[in-house]
Amino acid sequence: MTDSSSLALPEFRDASLLVRALTHRSYLNEHLETIEDNERLEFLGDAVLDFVAGSVLYHKYPEMDEGGLTQLRAALVRTEQLAQFAAGLDLGAKLRLGKGEDDSGGRQRPTLLCAAFEATMGAYYLDSGLEAVRGFVEPLFTEAAHTILLTEKEVDPKSHFQEWAQAVRGQTPHYVQVSLAGPDHNRVYTVEVFVGDEAFGIGSGPNKQAATQAAARAALKKVNAE
Question: What H or E segment, with its residue span, contains residue 142?
Answer without folding.
Answer: helix 130-151
